[in-house]
Structure to design on (156 residues):
């Protein structure tokens, strides 16, 4: 395990946010996943797992910071350029993934994040990489309430 500025991970087990602060990590993701209504439960699990694994593996998100919303849509509710965009041809099996997280990650981290998600979904879910559309929305720590109407990570 890595050591943070103020000690080891074991000393911060009860407060993973504090551990992340010590290491300078960026946390608090929310993933919105939009799929065709015909997507199987297994595929939805593969997608959710791929997003979560990439958050932990490439974006320094602590375990258990796992918030996702999955929405199924009829084919007329998933709109994309049928003639393609930027040389990418899409199908009716397009998957939209939008991740909102705290700003500050490098372009290199974001590239790895996109690639890991696309590779995992393509390999494990048998989905064409062309049909995996990912968007990032960046926010500040003060933009989040995890419950109780409180700004848990804002200034005190």
């Amino acid at each position: 395990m890595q050591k943070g500025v103020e000690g080891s991970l074991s000393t911060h087990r009860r407060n993973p946010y504090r551990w992340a602060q010590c290491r300078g990590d960026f946390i608090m993701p929310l993933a919105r996943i939009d799929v065709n209504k015909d997507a199987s439960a297994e595929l939805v699990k593969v997608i959710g797992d791929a997003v979560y694994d990439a958050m932990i593996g490439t974006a320094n998100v602590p375990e258990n910071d796992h918030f996702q919303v999955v929405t199924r849509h009829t084919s007329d509710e998933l709109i994309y350029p049928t003639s393609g965009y930027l040389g990418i041809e899409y199908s009716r099996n397009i998957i939209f993934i939008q991740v909102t997280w705290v700003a500050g990650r490098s372009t290199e981290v974001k590239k790895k994040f996109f690639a890991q998600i696309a590779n995992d979904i393509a390999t494990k879910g048998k989905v064409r990489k062309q049909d995996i559309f990912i968007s990032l929305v960046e926010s500040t720590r003060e933009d989040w309430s995890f419950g109780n109407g409180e700004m848990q990570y804002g200034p005190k």
Observations:
- Confidence is low (pLDDT under 50) at residues 1-25.
- The chain has one domain: 25-142.
- The domain at 25-142 is CATH 3.30.429.10 (Macrophage Migration Inhibitory Factor).
- Residues 107-125 form the longest helix (19 residues).
